[in-house]
Amino acid sequence: MRTIRGWQHEPQDDRDRIKVTLKDVKPEVMRRLVVPVTLRLDRLHLTLQAAFGWTSSHLFEFFAGEVHWGIPDPDNDYGHQPMDASKARLCDIVRETGAKTIHYLYDFGDSWDHVIKLEKWFENTTTEGLPFLLEAAGRCPPEDVGGAPGYAEYLDAISDPAHPAHEHMRLWGPERFDPNVVDRKALEAAVNALSDTWKPRRRATRTK
What we know:
The protein has helices at residues 41-52, 90-97, 147-159, 166-170, 184-197; strands spanning 2-4, 7-9, 17-22, 30-34, 60-64, 67-70, 83-84, 101-106, 112-120, 132-137. The protein is an alpha+beta fold. Helices cover 25% and strands 24% of the residues.
């Protein structure tokens, strides 16, 4: 078994694999994915949006320690200027920072913090058919529900007809929202669509 910066290489499974968990959310919302470590961060953003079921309607950032990657904006007022996510790859974060845990922040208002753990790392692996959803647990919270605290309140309200905000909250998300039920086929289809879009195109051979 070989290691690179603390990541294990296991010859019996030569696929790069990440586990992503939504922080401070109960019941657990987790996705396990096969992604190439050479994946650009802007594409990793789209992969996580598809895998979790978000609508990609807010800003995002990846960060490890004090280093941030996202969409550069000279007019931002968040106290830092992220590096361009379209010019960095997942492997760059690990090699440049030595981080063993990477965070993906979606929606700066609700602050959905996704904790990314790289479970397996291999070099020179194929990107064909990737990204690919391996496992999904927990339904994605509704957009704009107020982050982890707002989501907890939302679940309390929709599950209790006597709750003063029951009717209001019931109309906030889907008519029937079960945090434990995941539409696995829909998530897989969304991730697979990205794989098809990013598939290297074969060059047409010229005929003499």
